[in-house]
Specification:
The protein has 83 residues and is of the alpha+beta class. 19% of the residues lie in helices and 30% in strands. The protein has one domain: Malonyl-CoA ACP transacylase, ACP-binding (Alpha-Beta Plaits).
Length: 83
Amino acid sequence: MSNVSRFVLRYAGPAAPPAQTQRIRSSAKVHVLDDSPKMLLVEGEDSDVETLLADLPDWKALRERSVRLPDGRPKLDRPDGQR
């Protein structure tokens, strides 16, 4: 069974080397969804991301997390039985 997840890949140095970024982009099993100068949002199986980063020690993978925001709309307190 596949375990596809999203990960934020963060480069530890001042700027990610273009050759390393291209290596990640050219992976057949890990897909880049978005990027910035030091980070990439990727999607792939856990093991494929780990294998890709095994030879890239300055890159760290953090699993993407979703946070549910509370409903910010005010609610009226109503006595029981009233609409």
